[in-house]
Amino acid sequence: MKFTVEQQALTEGVNWVSRSLSTRPIKTELLGIVIDATGDEVLLSGSDLETSSKANFHADITAKGKVLVPGKLLAEISRSLPNKPITITLDGSRVLVTSGSAKFTLPTLSIDEYPNLPELPETTGVVSSDLFAQAVAQVSIAAGRDDSLPTLTGVHVEIVEDVVTLAATDRYRLAVREFNWSPTAPGVSTTALLRARTIADAAKSLTASKNVSLSFAPATSNDRLAGFEGDGKSMTSRMLDGTFPPYRHLLPQEVVTTAVIEVAPFLDSVRRVALVTDKTVPLRLEFTDGAVSLEAGTGEEAQATESIEIKLNGEAISIAFNPTFLAEGLQAVGTAFVQISFTGSNKPAILMGKAERDSAAIESYRYLLMPMRYAS
C-alpha cells in the first residue's frame, strides 16, 4: 500500500474517525484506525462498538492495500505535520508516514481481528448542517452527565413528517428545540434516544458540509442504529435503551409574569455575582417593575449584589436559580434579548429568545429551569 494525500484532507479524516476510538477498549484492535486504499479513494474507519465513524478522501494511490494503525498516534502526527503532501507507505509490518523531511514509522495492529462495522441505515431526511448544529448545541447542554441514569444522558429525537423535536433533561432543567427538515419519504414518524455527547460531537463536526443526512433504523431492526452523514464523513451510533421521560406537560401554560432582558449585560451580571458562590448555591433574583436584583452569598460568607434594567409584565417575582444552569440557558437562546416566563416563585421558569425587546418570543426553543430553595 502506498498513497499521497494533502495534509488537510488526511487530518480532517483522521480527526473525524478518531472521535469514535475508545480510551479503554475491550480489545487492542479497537485502538486502531483502518486505512483502506483498495478502491479509488482512501477510506478511514474506527469504532468503539457503540459508535463507528468513516471518512473518505481522494488520494494518489500508487499501490493498493489495507492496514490497521494506532489511531490516536496517527491523529497527533497528521495534525503536527506541515501543510505539505503526505505519503503513507506499508513496509512489511510497519507504516511509514513522510512529509517533506519529516518521517514517522508506526507499528501495525492485527487487521484480521478487527470487527465488521455497521452500514448506515437508509436516509430518513436531510437538514442544513448549521441549523442541525445549533439545535443540537441548544438542547444537549441540558442532558445529564450521570452514567448511572443513562436515559437522561441522551437527546430525545422525535420526528413527525417535516418537523423534528429535540429534547434533553437532567431533572433540573429541560431544553426543547423544534426545526423543520426535508424527509426522504412522506408520512415519516419515528423516535430515537441518542447519547448527547455523540450527537453533539457529530453535529459540530459536520458543519463543513452544507447539509447533514440523518438516518434512523426502523424499530423492527435488530440494530437500533442512528446515522449522520456529511461530505465524505459518516457516523453510526447505537440508540440508548430506555424510555425518555414525558416532558411536554412540564412546559407551563399559565404565565403570571414575563421579564424581557438584554442577554449580554444580564449574563455578565450573573457571572459576576456568582463569583462568590459555587454552582450548588442559589443565585437569588428579585424581579420588580423596571429592574432585576441579583444577590448571592449570606451571613459571614462573601456576598455580591447587582441590579440591571428589565421590562416586566405582571406581578413581582422572587426566585433563585443554579447560576451555572441560568448562564448556560442565556447563552443557548442565541439572541440579543431573552424572555423569562414565570408561573410562580417556586415553579419552573421558561427562557425563550427574542430578536428585539418588543418582538415576539421565538418559541422554537424553550429552556425550562427549575428554581432552587434558599434561606430567606
Shape: elongated
For the record, what is the CATH homologous superfamily label of the largest domain?
A: DNA Polymerase III, subunit A, domain 2
Mean pLDDT: 94
The total of beta strands comes to 27
Main sheet properties: 9 strands, antiparallel
Distance between the termini: 72 Å
Rg estimate, integer Å:
25 Å
Order of the strands making up the biggest sheet? 6-2-3-4-18-17-16-10-14
Count of DSSP H/I helices: 6
In percent, how helical is the residue content?
10-25%
The CATH class label of the largest domain is Alpha Beta
Q: List low-confidence stretches.
A: none
CATH topology of the largest domain: DNA Polymerase III, Chain A, domain 2
Set out the fold topology:
Layout: E1 2-5, H1 7-18, E2 32-36, E3 42-47, E4 51-57, E5 60-63, E6 66-70, H2 71-80, E7 86-91, E8 94-99, E9 102-107, E10 123-128, H3 129-140, E11 154-160, E12 163-169, E13 173-180, E14 182-183, E15 189-195, H4 196-205, E16 211-216, E17 225-230, E18 233-238, E19 257-262, H5 263-273, E20 283-288, E21 291-296, E22 304-309, E23 311-314, E24 317-321, H6 323-333, E25 337-342, E26 349-354, E27 362-369
Antiparallel strand pairs: 1-5, 1-7, 2-3, 2-6, 3-4, 4-18, 7-8, 8-9, 10-14, 10-16, 11-12, 11-15, 12-13, 13-27, 16-17, 17-18, 19-23, 19-25, 20-21, 20-24, 21-22, 25-26, 26-27
Word description of this protein:
- The protein is of the alpha+beta class and 376 residues long.
- The chain folds into three domains: 2-113, DNA Polymerase III, subunit A, domain 2 (DNA Polymerase III, Chain A, domain 2), CATH 3.10.150.10; 123-248, DNA Polymerase III, Chain A, domain 2 (Roll); 251-369, DNA Polymerase III, subunit A, domain 2 (DNA Polymerase III, Chain A, domain 2, Roll).
- Helix content is 18%, strand content 42%.
- The chain has six helices and 27 strands.
- It has helices spanning 7-18, 71-80, 129-140, 196-205, 263-273, 323-333, and strands at residues 2-5, 32-36, 42-47, 51-57, 60-63, 66-70, 86-91, 94-99, 102-107, 123-128, 154-160, 163-169, 173-180, 182-183, 189-195, 211-216, 225-230, 233-238, 257-262, 283-288, 291-296, 304-309, 311-314, 317-321, 337-342, 349-354, 362-369.
- The strands form four sheets. Strands 6-2-3-4-18-17-16-10-14 form a nine-stranded antiparallel sheet. The chain has a nine-stranded antiparallel sheet with strand order 15-11-12-13-27-26-25-19-23. It has a five-stranded antiparallel sheet with strand order 5-1-7-8-9.
- A hairpin with a 2-residue loop joins strand 7 (86-91) and strand 8.
- Helix 1 runs antiparallel to helix 2 (71-80) and helix 5 packs antiparallel against helix 6 (323-333).
- The longest helix is centred in the first third of the chain and has 12 residues, at 7-18.
- It is elongated.
- The model has no long low-confidence stretch (mean pLDDT 94).
